[in-house]
Amino acid sequence: MANTSEGVSKRLQSLDFFRGFTMFLLIAEFAGIFHHLRSPELEGSFLYWLGTQLDHVEWEGLHFWDNIQPFFMYIVGVAMPLSFARRGSSGQDDSQIKWHVYKRAFLLLFLGWALYCIDPGKIVFRFQNVLAQLAVTYLIAYWLMRSRFVVQVLASLTLLLITEILYRTFPIAGFDHAFVPGQNFGAWFNILIAGEEDGGHWAMFNAIPTAAHTIWGVLTGQLLLGDKSEKEKLKWLLVSGVILLVIGIGLSFYTPIIKRISTSSFVIVSGGISILVFALCYWVYDILNKKSLLWFFSIVGLNPLFIYLFAHVGGAELLHKIFTPFVGIFTYFMPEWLGGILTGLVVLAALWYLCYWLYKQKIFIRI
Fold it and tell me: What is the DSSP string of 25-69?
């Protein structure tokens, strides 16, 4: 992309791939494939190790799966300058774009909250999932995106510093243990908002520190819209990602990497990983212009909200009920874990085909 106008008109293939690949992994998890990789019969094998990497760390540390939500936060940020530039070039003014932003943030927050009300069948106040968290990070990034580069970077670091201070200095007895599950500021904040602590110790306050991911995504999008050469843009991405990774790993000796409460070290390390993964996608799909697997994964990324909600509210479970008896004909003599994986692959294929059918019908559900 040589200039801003070209950057607006030319679709970013790397972003399509990254979004689609991330969504594909998420629906694979809903299909139950990763759960069966962690079957006791496989313990000690490569498949079992892979299964653990496709699950969250219990508390301290980092597995690959802990990067999925940061990927989402970052991807949304990258898309924001590109989307707003396209809206501007199509004739929308600032007030129309602002209305779109606030409407989208409200709907994300509402949908994220509503998902928690389905299982208990009553209104509960929880906002830990990716949709609700995105509503907050999206707004914060939008408020900052017209600021200078330095201001956006300093703002993102300030959010991390505020989080660090709150966890380390919170004075209320019983919640003054910075990084102990259920005994920290994040647990207190959960109780303040929801009336109870989350069973998995996921903190609602995570939306504040993880706004850094979306801000860094916005900075990436602005870089891509700039007039630097593709190689210069790639260099900036690689250097930024490595710097964050080094800083985050160094900080982890002082502040542990904990995804469930989004410690500063976690945000920085996962932010660095997000940038480096995107840099790889950018090199392969926009610089080298490769097409391998691009279409396959992009299909899922074209309707991310729909497929996430469909799988989350019971769509994947329904498909399991439909296909399990038929797949069972072929898996009857297989080990349970292998039969479960094969059934999960069939469900995953059905979820992918649903995205493909929507694509063929030119149905794209967006907010």
Answer: HHHHHHTTHHHHHT-GGGTTSHHHHHHHHTS--SSBS--GGGGHH
